[in-house]
Write a structure and sequence with these properties.
The protein is an alpha+beta fold and 551 residues long. It is 42% helix and 15% strand. It is globular. The C terminus is likely disordered. It binds S-adenosylmethionine. The site of S-adenosylmethionine has 21 residues, from strand 2. It comes from Enhygromyxa salina.
């Protein structure tokens, strides 16, 4: 069986929104019953798993769970298989198979099903098969996550895609197709600008703005993405309400139900002006469709991609986040507050602004004025990257307030719950049920996952322990493979010194290679300290091995 993904494999990376623990958190927040399975012992299926960039790190960190990956591309499955074997994963099965031909009776049932980057990029019969398979393959407590391209955001992409498809019709070689696609977009974008200039048109025009914006997007994406997004034979965006209509039609309405979006921030309208919110509420009231607000939000935001969480049609679901779910969750926050003495901060009544370091460019900040919330966020910043269970968080926050001489009994739990929900929908705080095996920079024998050690040499994506993709800084590429938990800090320094001798690593001072042995050792020690600190903060350092046999 040959496949368009054989000659041009898809970039292999993990998708945090599809991690089963995040799906479980969402299921609990939206009151899904029966309660979604704990991920420590679950069955997880990925349809269209490509080279396994999403499944392999999950399978490594959840050894008692069982994973199955399906993809039609033999080249990609062979690659995933080789990696799984090298990592010694015996809880992951990978199959070359077409979704159209999958037999639910032989696959069994799953607690979580992931279908990311597939639905919009396959033919209508495959889409229908995916939707029909989900209720047949999901356990009664199961959750599925499906991503798909949506309008209106995809209209501009569609315009450029049609231009590229027209230019590359009859061109067989992927390399030539890619070059021609990029060139023709440049040509048309420049031609439109030149035509406007020639005609003396100065006012903005939607067509030229859209072309220029799409060209910027296309310039940033790798060839493999362009090939499978713009040049793929099938790429069929749809409106959110159309997707929901198709979900609702499965098994005459009994098959599947929509739970929520996998990005909580997209479900609430914190980015809209108050007047817009009032209008939006009126528009939604005028219909009996409970999801109308979400559809209008797509129109307002010009949304391009959705990642929807679904459950079986016979499960129970709530429309809103259930505050009662929060005491069952753990919370983490990668943030900082600019103050040397947090105790002083808590003693004062003044609101506090926390900078969220996990947001792109660390541009997000979140304010807190309620004393218990301030104390809880200070606590979360202090313990990052580990998470804290709700009860423990509340206790620690009240303890911090008492130490600061503040009344620690009056602030209510309800206020803390409301604040944590607000922080979650603003992407400042993440919730977890399962704590990844996080280690500290001070660990005696620092260890990074076997998956990341293997990927370090490949110039591609690695996976942080909370399943976020990251690219390794070039200076760390030599260190990461050494972090297998067998070397203490002295042994790591010796290994780094060996790399200096072979010329693989060249520490410099003022641009010049360091030659003095003592200065070199000191520079390597500082490099090691700083590198371990940054890997721990990602978080990518794992806890010490629990047994000698663990890899
Ligand atoms: C765009 S890639 C997405 C890969 C990965 N899930 C991700 O999001 O990064 C789509 C994947 O679906 C697979 N695929 C497409 N049609 C399929 C089918 N009918 N049966 C099985 N796999 C299919 C492709 O081979 C490819 O690996």
């Amino acid at each position: 069986m040959t496949d368009g993904y054989d000659p041009v494999p898809y970039p292999s990376l993990c998708h945090p929104q599809t991690h089963p623990d995040w799906l479980r958190v969402l299921g609990l927040l939206f009151g899904v019953e029966p309660t979604p399975a704990p991920v420590e012992r679950a069955r997880i299926l990925e349809l269209g798993c490509a080279c396994g960039g999403n499944l392999l790190p999950m399978a490594e960190h959840l050894p008692a769970s069982r994973f199955v990956g399906i993809d039609r591309s033999r080249t990609q499955i062979d690659r995933a298989q080789a990696d799984a074997q090298a990592l010694g994963l015996d809880n992951l099965e990978l199959h070359v198979a077409d979704i159209l031909e999958l037999d639910p009776a032989t696959l069994g049932r799953f607690d979580y099903i992931i279908c990311h980057g597939v639905f919009s990029w396959v033919s209508r019969p495959v889409q229908d098969r995916i939707l029909a398979l989900l209720p047949a393959l999901l356990e009664p407590r199961g959750l599925a996550v499906v991503s798909y391209n949506v309008y209106p955001g995809c209209h501009a992409r569609e315009m450029v895609r049609q231009l590229m498809k027209y230019r590359t019709r009859g061109v067989a070689s992927p390399t030539l197709q890619l070059a021609a696609a990029r060139t023709v977009l440049d040509f048309v974008t420049n031609a439109v600008a030149a035509r406007r200039e020639h005609a003396g048109v100065t006012e903005p025009e939607a067509y030229s703005l859209a072309l220029a914006r799409e060209r910027e997007v296309v310039r940033r994406v790798p060839d493999a993405y362009l090939f499978h997004e713009h040049l793929e034979p099938d790429n069929a965006p749809l409106y959110f309400h159309e997707f929901i209509g198709r979900v609702g039609a499965v098994n005459d309405g009994a098959g599947l139900g929509y739970v929520c979006d996998a990005s909580l921030d997209t479900m609430v309208a914190r980015d809209l002006a108050p007047a817009t919110l009032t209008e939006l509420a009126k528009l939604a009231e005028a219909t009996d469709d409970p999801l109308a607000v979400e559809q209008y939000l797509d129109f307002v935001r010009n949304r391009e991609l959705r990642v929807s969480v679904l459950s079986r049609g016979d499960s129970r679901r709530a429309r809103q986040i259930q505050p009662a779910a929060l005491p069952g969750l753990r919370f983490a926050m990668h943030g900082q507050v600019h103050c040397d003495d947090p105790t002083q901060l808590l003693a004062s009544e003044a609101p506090v602004s926390f900078q969220i370091l996990s947001s792109p460019d660390a541009k997000l900040s979140i304010g807190a004025s309620d004393p218990l919330t301030k104390a809880a966020l200070v606590e979360l910043c202090a313990v990052w990257p580990t998470s804290v269970g709700f009860e423990q968080l509340e206790r620690s926050a009240r303890g911090r307030l008492a130490t600061a001489g503040h009344d620690s009994t009056t602030p209510t739990r309800e206020q803390l719950v409301a604040s944590l929900i607000e922080c979650m929908v603003r992407n400042a705080v993440v919730a977890r049920c399962w704590e990844p095996p996080i280690g500290a920079a001070s660990s005696a024998r620092p260890r990074i996952s076997a998956f990341n050690r293997r990927m370090a040499g490949r110039d591609g994506w690695l996976a942080a322990l909370e399943h976020r993709p990251f690219v390794l800084e070039p200076t760390l590429a030599h260190l990461v493979p050494l972090l297998d938990g067998t070397r203490d800090h002295d042994a790591l320094l010796d290994a780094l010194a060996g790399l200096v001798e072979t010329g693989d690593l060249t520490p410099r001072q003022d641009g010049e290679p360091i030659r003095d042995p003592a200065a070199l050792r000191a520079a390597l020690a500082e490099f090691l300290r700083a590198s371990l600190r940054s890997l721990a903060q990602l978080p990518a350092l794992m806890g010490d091995p629990v047994s000698a046999s663990e890899s």
